[in-house]
Amino acid sequence: MIGLENLTPIIPGDSDFPDGQIKDKNGTVHGTPMNQRTFSDIFQFFQKLMRLAGIVPSGLFDCEYTGFQLISALQSFINGLLIPFVNNYYTSVPWITVGAGGPAFASGWSALGSPFRAPQFRKLANGIVQIRGSLTQSLGGGGTMFTFPSGYFNTSFDENFPAQAIGSGGSNVLVYINIDHATGNVSVNTGAVNVGQVNIGNLNYHLT
Length: 208
Prior knowledge:
2 helices, two-stranded antiparallel sheet, 9-stranded antiparallel beta sheet, Immunoglobulin-like
């Protein structure tokens, strides 16, 4: 970025304009080669952005060869605002654990246990429902694992997601998780394969 200090002459910096200010040019006074009224706020914006990002203007034009300092400064500024917000947004919504304060397991199903995560779910403020965790059953053909409470499933249409399961002999099996729109039942469709472990992983879906 070409900093304001490279566009001399300028008005020296002070507490209000720490990077200096554009100096008007008229018939008798030699000033910055641009108009203060037109360009001052633009330059002050970018100078402030660079200071907030802790980036010192290189004195070179931003381009593919020298790099884009203004884009780096903007990314730094956005990340400084967004990342804490996102972290707080996600960590402030508690998970509901199936079989431990949440809905009960359907007959024959239970949490897989350590070191695997217990089956959990939660609903974010934007209407996205997240599901994660691993379940186990005596080798069987799937079926309902647990049921969502009202407000955690779409009542207009079913949701279907692929998932990984472990079949007899320890083989990996592709199965499908179904969330029934009428009942909220969360079930696994294994086809004709018997499975003993289902890994929901991290599923996300929107209620609308």
